[in-house]
Structure formats: C-alpha cells, structure tokens
Design goal:
Elements: H1 2-15, H2 21-35, H3 39-47, H4 53-95, H5 104-140, H6 175-179, E1 221-228, E2 231-237, E3 245-247, H7 248-253, E4 265-267, E5 273-275, E6 278-286, E7 289-298, E8 304-306, H8 308-313, E9 317-319, E10 324-327, E11 330-333, E12 335-336
Helix pairs in contact: 1-2, 3-4, 4-5
Length: about 350
C-alpha cells in the first residue's frame, strides 16, 4: 500500500504539473481509492475525509490494522466455542461409557484432534498479534518523503562556517572571526574552543538596551542583481533554502532549456510540498563574474532564489554592516528586495 502511495504521488506530479497542489491532492486521493478495488473499504476511508494523499494512506493503514484485529478475535472466539463443544461431547461420552463402550475410543480421538486444532488456532492468534504490532509500528513511522536536504534527497547538509569554511561551527562561533573583534565587546576564546559564559562578555553600550526593539517595516538588503544574456533580474539570497530555484514562468521567459530530475517534490519552510518540474544549467553573470549555476524549476513559485548550495559553491560571505556580499573573492553590493520582480 505504501508503494502504491509513492507511485500515485510520482505519477500525479508528472501528469498534472500545472494543477494547484490542493486539486492535485484530491485527484491523487480518488485514484488511490479506485485502485484499492474494495468499495466498502474506500467508502470508509472517504468518510474520514482525508485532506491529502498522505492522510488517506494513514487512514487506510489504520483501518487495515483494525480489520485484521477483528478477524483474529472472531477466529479466537470460534475456536473457543469449538473447544467447549468438544469438551461437552467428551463429558457426555464419559458419563455414558457403560452404555457405549465401543465408541469411547472414537470420542477420545476426536477430543485429541480438537485440542490440536485449538493449539494451532492459538499459534495463529499469536502470529496475528505480532503482525498487528508490526503494522502499528509501520503506521507510526509513515512520514511524507522530503527532498529538502539537497538536490539528491539525501538529507540535510552539515553546517559550514562562512569565515573559515570548516564544518562543526557557524561564523558567529568561529575562532578566527572572534579573534579579530575588539576585546571591548567579546572576551577571548581559549584553545579548547570553549566559549566563556555570556555574563562575562562586556557590553560596548553605556546604557542598558531595551528588551524589545521595534522591527523596521522596510525590505531588508537580501538581494543581488543578476544578469542572464540581455535580461537583468533581482535574485533573493536565502540562507534558509538548501536549493537554488526559479519560477517556471520566469524560466520560460528566459528561454531556459529544462532537463529532467530524479525527484519531483521538495518541502518548503511551512511543511507544504513544492513541485519540481526540472532543472536548468545556465551561466549567471554577477557583477563581473560569469558563474555556472544549477537551478531547479518550480511552477509553485515566482522569481529567482539563490540557496545555500549556490552560496557554498561560490564561497559567499555576507557583510551585513557594509551591505555587501563576497562572491568568489569579489565584493558585490546588496540590494533591497523589490515589491514586484520584473526582467
């Protein structure tokens, strides 16, 4: 049933790439229930009103567990009734042994056979209980597939430091970065990379800062200008995105050639699925540099987002105070995110 769910998910994404996510989920649920080939079972699933294909799979697995448990209990009750009937027959045969001595051996054989059947029924019941426990464990572990880690879908990447490029710490904890800051604002870091407590750090401000600071209602400096051939556009630098992605409408306007990918879905920050229709391999011009870039194409978004994969590949370092970013040892000015992105 889980493999059926995965196949329908994949085929739905390929068959309906331009349909909205909610409509595509409804179509996938209908196909999933039709393939089950059990009208009563499908009707019980529809009564639960699953919102998407994942919830329909969870309901189907839960009902399958309940159905198996019910059948096992019925089998146990039937076997217990048969044992009681055999015992009654045995007692009657013992009480009337003086009258029917020739039939006592036959009744004894029937009683032995009934005991064997009861023992086999108990074994089957134990096997059924183990199977139910396995199904419950599988049901608890059913989660939607997530390819948000990287373009190969192998999970999240380990963190890299933007200062020294090493793994295991971030730029704010980098020994090289901390050692270059004046001692009036930070204390010195020891050789064993153990940072002193926050109470030991002196503050450069003469007065105590308020606990709540208002957020300015203007766009932050998180974009850079990118050029492709004769087209100019604004790209968003998103450190929270593991992939570099462009809207399919914008990719079509730029006449990008799209190639197939091994996956069709990624997870966005709010947990929703975003369809991936292909990938393009293009040369983006950033300031004076021509950079080979691998860009995924999605119909569920607009504009161009440069993810952490693109920034790691080009050794990007952000300088927030100067409103600049270093791309391959070349400083590029940061831009505000526009209200409307145009080519």
């Amino acid at each position: 049933m889980q493999s059926l769910h995965a196949d329908i998910r994949r085929l739905g994404a390929l068959a309906f790439p331009t349909v909205k996510q909610t409509a595509r989920e409804a179509i996938a649920i209908d196909y999933f229930l039709d393939v089950l080939d059990d009208a009563d079972f499908a009707l019980r699933i529809r009564e639960r009103q699953p919102v998407n294909l994942d919830s329909a799979l969870a309901v189907a697995l839960q009902m399958e567990v309940w159905a198996n448990n019910t059948r096992m209990r019925q089998a146990e009750s039937e076997s217990s009734v048969e044992i009681e009937e055999v015992q009654v027959v045995g007692e009657q045969s013992v009480s009337s042994s003086d009258c029917f001595e020739p039939n006592s051996e036959v009744l004894q054989e029937d009683l032995t056979e009934a005991k064997k059947i009861a023992a086999e029924a108990r074994k089957e019941a134990e096997k059924a209980k183990k199977r139910i426990a396995e199904l419950k464990a599988k049901l608890a572990s059913v989660v939607p597939l997530s390819y948000a880690g990287d373009t190969a879908g192998t999970g999240p990447r380990p963190g890299h430091c933007f200062c020294c490029g090493k793994m295991g710490h971030f730029a704010k904890d980098c020994p090289i970065h901390v050692s270059g800051i004046a001692s009036s604002s930070f204390t010195k870091v020891s050789n064993d990379n153990q940072q002193v407590s926050r109470s030991c750090i002196s503050t450069p401000y003469k007065t105590q800062l308020p606990e709540v600071r208002p957020v300015r209602r203007r766009q932050s400096w998180t974009c850079i200008n990118v050029k492709y051939e004769k087209h100019r556009m604004t790209a968003l630098l998103d450190t929270g995105s593991d992939i570099t992605v462009i809207g399919s409408v914008l990719a079509k306007k730029l006449n990008w050639e799209m190639f197939p990918v091994t996956f069709t879905m990624v997870k966005v920050a709010n947990g929703d699925d975003m369809l991936i229709s292909g990938v393009a391999y293009v040369v983006l011009r950033v300031d004076t540099q021509d950079i080979d870039s691998e860009v995924l194409i999605s119909p569920d978004m607009t504009g161009l987002i440069l993810g952490i994969d693109w920034m790691e590949m080009n050794e990007c370092v952000l300088y927030c105070k100067e409103k600049q970013i270093r791309v391959n040892n070349e400083l590029v000015e940061l831009k505000r995110e526009p209200n409307k992105r145009r080519i």
